[in-house]
Amino acid sequence: MDWQPIKKTFPPWHPQPNLIDYQQSRVDFSWDAVRNELDGLPDGRGLNIAYEAVDRHAEGGGADRVALRWLGKGGEVKDFTYADLKAQSNRFANVLRSLEVGKGERVFSLSGRIPELYFAVLGTLKNTSVFCPLFSAFGPEPISQRLERGDARVLVTTERLYRKKIAALRPALPKLQYILLADSDQDQDETVLSLPRLLDIASPDFIIPPTDPEDMALLHFTSGTTGKPKGAVHVHNAVLTHYLTGKYVLDFQPGDIFWCTADCGWVTGTSYGIIAPLAHGVTNLVDAADFEAERWCRTLAGQQVNVWYTAPTAIRMLMRSGLKPKDKYDLSRLRLVHSVGEPLNPEAVIWGEEALGLPIHDNWWQTETGGIMIANYASMDIRPGSMGRPLPGIEAAIVHRVGKGEVELETHPDCEGELALKSGWPSMFRGYLHDDERYRNCFAGDWYISGDLAQKDADGYFWFVGRADDIIKTSGHMVGPFEVESALMEHPAVAEVGVIGKPEAMIGELVKAFVSLQSGSEANENLKLELLGFARKKLGSAVAPKEIEFTDILPKTRSGKIMRRLLKARELGLPEGDTSTLED
Ligand code: ATP
Ligand code: MG
């Protein structure tokens, strides 16, 4: 890599990061010590995510602190203190109890980012039921699949979404007993009920029943980037990872204002859009509106955001907008920017320095891991293009599968292999719902095999290579799409790239790049030749793309990930497979 490390220096007002001595923290680490920083339910009744996130602050000194600041699409602002959030989530838990919805039963949501959604998540956890958020832009088919596979008993939604997407599905979903409409004052019948009415008559007091740390808490469907989405099961003990990553990675400090831009429909929107910031008692900002470059810059400045967690796709959209936010907006409160979900091109890390005044910190995790596993930390220099180093408490390695159920650890630096984690961390998924075999196949001995390929350098930094499914085999080489995409991204005309392997008789697969251009750049033969030459110079002819095709947009999941399998299927005229998460 020809990128220089970014040295981290801190202005005098910058609080000391929570993680200073990375190596020592790893040596001293114990999950028991993390557990001791949490409260646990009173009288030793166990561990419940919602108690750690809300009640312990509301009952301690944080009752009047703002827990949730909600920004409506039209500019309205609503604040909920920790005391408010405690009362509202208690009410929701009492609503479930009154409907005789009990432990382990599934409560789904299908809505935009409305306050009631947050009450519902926390209230469901308090009731020891299981929460499963769905993305509101899903069509009827993906919704019904997930409701059915997840054994939904209750769905929280809005009147419009119910009418448009759910009503017609109900005969096929006999287990779905109650629909709670968040924006309706009246019940429609005895199963389609007004949530505001129910919350109104429910008591704001609720005693959380005993909760075993291993009790199921959340069900999250994966993004469907590589195939049919899987339902990953998580337990209450996951809050240890949420808390620890809030401390070490997002580096929460007292009084912080935090903004996670992910929708609750994805695991990031729950683990970091709800649980981690609340577990630290900071203020969690929620914006009901979708991405819009100027609005986002205004929000960062106007809401005085200190820590920002977003995704490469949003960063690339900002880059493409041509805005240089720090010239136009006061971003002086912003201390830390993190990104997750896709590889973050070095180009984007550097753009952050120039346009936001801060480099962007990449981190890696999956729906299955429940929380951040590999990260760049506030106190450590950044190597642009690297995902960083494993969280203290997490052992990560590059492995090769040898025979069934066994792996060999890669001991040489910079060698490619499967990224694996030593199993047993608190937020590790406990199963794929209704698919035990698939779950078992993710493990070999003590190791969870992630399905991503990576390298580890001599200093222990991990570098993403690609998803095992996306790796290109060309003339005897293995080429990771990320490397090729990042090289092309360095060309000023390029906005976004997706790279695939296209079967070719002589060389196995040919590297093909789909390129979308910056506004103002014209797609023509000359530019194509220029890009082919540019990539060849950077990557060498063995790795550089042989074909380039211009495209206005790349197919992406609704969570913003480039769907390379779809580029490939379309290129080859093959069936597209599961497209339930494809964005419009
Ligand atoms: P599916 O498993 O259904 O195909 P998915 O893997 O995209 O979908 P998620 O769990 O949302 O579903 O995403 C996790 C994946 O996202 C990781 O396995 C990895 O491929 C990618 N990813 C996440 N963060 C990073 C990162 N910082 N760098 C590179 N890739 C990342
Ligand atoms: Mg996956």
Give the helices and strands, then pairings:
Elements: H1 22-28, H2 31-37, H3 49-58, E1 66-71, E2 77-81, H4 82-98, E3 106-111, H5 115-126, E4 130-135, H6 140-149, E5 152-157, H7 159-166, E6 178-181, E7 192-194, H8 195-201, E8 216-221, E9 231-235, H9 239-248, E10 257-260, H10 267-279, E11 283-287, H11 293-302, E12 307-310, H12 312-321, H13 325-328, E13 336-339, H14 346-355, E14 360-364, E15 374-375, E16 386-390, E17 396-401, E18 407-409, E19 417-422, E20 431-432, H15 436-441, E21 443-444, E22 447-456, E23 462-467, E24 472-474, E25 477-479, H16 481-489, E26 494-504, E27 508-517, H17 525-539, E28 547-550, H18 564-572
Parallel strand pairs: 1-11, 3-4, 3-5, 5-6, 6-7, 10-11, 10-12, 12-13, 13-14, 27-28
Antiparallel strand pairs: 1-2, 8-9, 9-20, 14-15, 15-16, 16-23, 17-18, 17-19, 19-22, 21-22, 22-23, 24-25, 26-27
Helix pairs in contact: 3-4, 3-5, 3-10, 4-5, 4-8, 9-10, 16-17
This protein binds adenosine-5'-triphosphate and magnesium ion.
Give a verbal description of the structure.
30% of the residues lie in helices and 24% in strands. With 584 residues, the protein is of the alpha/beta class. The chain folds into 2 domains: 32-452, ANL, N-terminal domain (Rossmann fold, 3-Layer(aba) Sandwich); 472-572, 2-Layer Sandwich (GMP Synthetase, Chain A, domain 3), CATH 3.30.300.30. The chain has a 15-stranded mixed sheet that branches. A 5-stranded parallel sheet has the order 4-3-5-6-7, with helices on both faces. Strand 26 (494-504) and strand 27 form a beta hairpin. The longest helix is centred in the N-terminal third of the chain and has 17 residues, at 82-98. The chain is globular, with a radius of gyration of 24 Å. It starts with 21 loop residues before the first helix and ends in a 12-residue tail after the last helix. The structure holds adenosine-5'-triphosphate and magnesium ion.
